[in-house]
Write a structure and sequence with these properties.
about 300 residues; alpha+beta; Immunoglobulin-like; 7 helices; about 35% helix; elongated
């Protein structure tokens, strides 16, 4: 039952929901079939040899034709795997064509900067830790790193690809099933590597376009206590479009409250978690670059309320 539990879920390569993941899943099944078949033949041969030894009372000589047969089976098996690998590679990269939507994903210790090209203006729309993909359309993701080597992996949608400082690797994603999936950094990148997750939502084209249009809007600029606290305590590191805050050290927070989680999947999006993350980030995610913000209780509450309004 424990083994079967890994065959489904929001982070499983055994439940493919995209063209690239399906190609890799089929290659996995082919490898299991070929290697399992050869393993079964080895066990049959071993059993036959033990039976001959037991009945004859001495080591049985293996006929030459059996050796040739084993060699032929191995060569055929390896050839099938080579062809299967070639076909899978072709399928993974076959979707690279003009017209694919461009997205940039940059790995940081330990969060994800995500940028979409606005089809209306050509400008980049920035968000963080949550990737939205249109169903049945190819999205070309340019992967980079701001610090150490990371690895981008959304098992249900595609295979993993390293994110290397100083260069951009390109991965195409063509999802075929709507829903929420979970991505993960798959290359050890420091203390909080295990808490560098990525929420991925595959939705209809209409829903995606509506979401992207909303993400392109600037945030309102209310004359509230929470907005004033943010301007004094947070604007150096974070950006909120439409308010004058333009920090680039941390994630863009323009539509923070529309996201599913906080701190790259560490906490669910709630007002209490927002306030806890603002005041005691090291207690929740030790080693994070987010410093503790020394605020009074009323200021912390007002700031959390303001952040919760950024949808």
């Amino acid at each position: 039952m424990l083994l079967l539990a890994g065959c489904q879920g929001v982070q499983s390569p055994l439940a493919p929901g995209g063209d690239q993941a399906t190609a890799l899943h089929n290659l996995f099944l082919l490898m299991m079939a070929v290697c399992g078949g050869i393993y079964a033949l080895v066990l049959v041969g071993l059993g036959w040899s033990l039976r001959r030894v037991r009945s004859a009372g001495q080591a049985a000589e293996v006929p030459e034709r059996s050796l040739w047969g084993a060699a032929i089976v191995i060569v055929i098996g390896l050839t099938v795997l080579i062809v299967g690998s070639f076909v899978a590679d072709r399928a993974v990269f076959a979707s690279r064509r003009q017209g694919a939507m461009m997205v940039r994903v940059t790995g940081h210790q330990w969060w994800w900067r995500i940028e979409y090209r606005d089809p209306a203006t050509g400008r980049w729309i920035e968000t963080a830790n949550e990737l939205h993909l249109p169903l049945d359309r190819t999205t070309r993701v340019a992967l980079g790193s701001a610090d150490v080597i990371h690895s981008f992996w959304v098992p249900n949608v595609a295979g993993k690809l390293d994110m290397i400082p100083g260069r951009r690797n390109v991965l195409d994603l063509t999802p075929r099933r709507v829903g929420w999936f979970r991505g993960q950094c798959a290359e050890f990148c420091g203390t909080q590597h295990a808490h560098m997750a990525l929420d991925v939502k595959v939705e209809s084209v209409a829903a995606f376009e509506a979401w992207l249009t909303e993400q392109a809007r600037p945030a309102p600029s209310p004359a509230s206590r929470g907005a004033a606290v943010f301007a004094n305590a947070c604007a150096v590191c974070h950006a909120i479009r439409g308010t004058g805050a333009s920090g680039r050290v941390g994630p863009d927070l323009t539509h923070l409250a529309s996201r599913k989680s906080i701190a790259a999947g560490t906490l669910t999006m709630t007002r209490g978690n927002l306030q806890g993350w603002i005041t005691q980030p090291q207690a929740l995610k030790p080693g994070t670059s987010m410093p503790a913000v020394p605020l009074s209780g009323p200021d912390a509450d007002a700031l959390a309320a303001y952040m919760e309004s950024l949808k």
